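We give the entry.
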Amino acid sequence: MKPVVYIDGKEGTTGLQIFERLGSREDIELILIDEDKRKDTQERKKFINAADIVFLCLPDAAAREAVALCENPNTRFIDASTAHRTHPDWDYGFPELSAAHRAAIATSKRVANPGCHASGFISSVYPLVKLGIVPPDYPLTCSSLTGYSGGGKKLIAEYEDVNRDPRHESHRIYGLTLKHKHLPEMTHVCGLAAAPVFVPILGDFYKGMASTVMLHNRLLPGAPTAQDIHAKLADYYADQTMVNVMPFGGEEPVIYSDTMAGRDSLELIVCGHEEQTIVTALFDNLGKGASGAAVQNMNLMLGFDETTGLTK
């Protein structure tokens, strides 16, 4: 019997992207709620309890409410919201971080899908902390340039409006309070003593993301060079399919933030010299930063090849 899958919140950007990746698959049964009943609590409850896997593509409060509707002990959730990313009863859905993460996802009933900016930061910082290269109390900084699709339908409409604010042609820095909603998971998952200084930047392109962590090598134990850090990261992710470390310095002297648009994998580019290092995570904010990662987690939970239905 095919596993039954339901997307609660299919009409949003993340939900639509998940549906796009699952709609033509024949190894699952995708059940669809009637359009006029998608906000009917009792109808949603019926679908949630009928499913083996439920994707939650909802605001935080609605995601928590959806979990509370579940009475079927066999229903498993993948939550794309920020609601459960630091919750002790939920497993963090980034399988490449460690064998323990991968094993936990495979058997989990509750998987919290990573945030987009957080995915970029954590892919660089988690292994560096685990390997002892970056101390947990190191004063980390990160900038992250994203396409506007990550802001959902309202922001997409704003950027694609022919009468839009002409300033949208330039990148804009936001999150100026330095309290972005992804900071708790960045700090918690990486085991940091304090949150990084994090600056998100919105660009005039639909999708793609470049998250860059900056390091002063002299402040790191043993003062490793940028090439030393590259070698450690390349070794750490050597056996992974959906996270790849590129040759030192990248393949050209610039990095374009939409390089991975349309793909579900993530690339790390390490640049620098003896005294300073930057590590840039390149990925699609709707791919490895959201819907692609969610489908990868579903594949692992169901015992499928993790790349099924995805574009590497």
Summary: The first strand starts at residue 4 and ends at 8. The chain has a mean pLDDT of 97. The chain has two domains: 4-114+290-301, 116-285. The CA atoms of residues 131 and 272 lie 19 Å apart.
